[in-house]
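Workshop exercise sheet. Pairs work together: one partner reads the sequence aloud, the other fills in the structure field after running the prediction. Swap roles for the next sheet.
Pair: D.N. / O.F.
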Amino acid sequence: MRLPNKIPSFYVFFVPFICAFLLQISGVQSAETPPALIGPDQMLTLQKKHAGQVRIVHVSGPEILKQSGWLIDYDGLPGMLPTAQQLSSAAKQSGLAPDDHIVIWPSQTGVWAYAAATRLFWTLRMMGHKHLYFLEGGVVDKGQSNIATSSQYPVETLSSKWITNMGGVYAGDDYQTPPLDIRDAERSEGYTTHPLVYDPGTIYGALNIPPVAFFENGLFKTKEQLRALMDDVIGKPPGPVVVFSDTGLRASIGWFVIHEIIGLKDVRLYDGGYIDWDAQGGETYDERNDMGDALG
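Structure field:
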């Protein structure tokens, strides 16, 4: 059979449209997966597309997480991740279900409201929740949070992807990626400290990124600005990134920025943070007593 010398104009005109349509229905286009960080316009789109399945969780600060069972204290460590069974109960009492599209909204401005909201986001990721969003820059009717508490949310196990303990703090060492201290500079340098800490300072070898460095005018900086910030601090790490704070609350801001906004896959939060490190006698560094060696 003889092939034509030229492709018919019909194919030239219609094939690009057919390909674009096939990509769209296959879900290849990035628009099929909304980003975790959304604004008011995306929020409205989400509510229209998933009517009846969108649950808004208002978070004003860390205390609301404790009162709702999303944080617990044990072994002398405050604000730790609860067990799977305890989280199942917390989700049920909050009226959440596994198929919900959960929108977490820091209903107040400031680092602590954002820390509480990102901590809840991280916790739900640990529970395996997929349809999860963080709303900023919007005003939400607080009445929408009054959801019936009859939902069931069974959680059998928690993910191990995004959490670490004392033994995993230096997981990035092989890739020349030090742990990141997501606390105020004064605390990281040892000038102030948590009441439960015996040796002020930071984990030996850690680099400090104060929480305020991630914000501009009360909101998260743009993705490009955050990437530039991380490039200045640790470059483009090919391996794991470990973040910590005193307990893991402010560290969740760093985790959210690096994992959910910038898009690095292997980001781990040290639950227990510097309080746990200090209690277990880990090597520390105190800028006030800089003798060139670790302490502790």
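Discussion prompt: Residues 1-32, 142-149, 292-296 have pLDDT under 50 and may be disordered. What would you look at next?
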